[in-house]
Amino acid sequence: MTAPVHIVGSYISPYVRKVLAVCEMKGVPYRVDPIVPFFGDDRFSELNPLRRIPVYIDDQVSISDSTVICE
Questions:
Q1: Angstrom distance (rounded) from CA 42 to CA 16
Q2: Measured between alpha carbons, how far is 4 from 48 in angstroms, rounded to an integer?
Q3: pTM of this structure
Q4: pLDDT tens, the chain, 71 aa long
């Protein structure tokens, strides 16, 4: 079984919900790390200097644009 990807973001965000919907449709297991947009610690700033959500993290890459994540 594939390890779940890590989605950093808030369920309130339509961009996060778009990514979650695509994960569901494609059968990609995921876990959500809920975070308030524009907040977070230094580790979050390293992942996404603009401090925007969502951020997709797996064992190979981290991506921080919902359209790119979905493609």
A1: 21
A2: 20
A3: 0.84
A4: 578 999 998 899 999 999 999 999 999 999 999 886 666 667 777 777 777 889 999 999 999 899 999 99
Task: Tell me how far CA of residue 31 lies from CA of 3, 20, 21, 50, in angstroms.
Answer: 10, 9, 13, 22
What distance in Å separates the CA atoms of residue 35 and residue 1, rounded to the nearest whole number? 27
Paired strand residues for 55: 8
**Residue 63 β-bridge partners:** 56
Question: Which helix (H) or strand (E) segment is 7 a member of?
Answer: strand 5-8
Instruction: Show the tokens assigned to 25.
Output: 């449709």
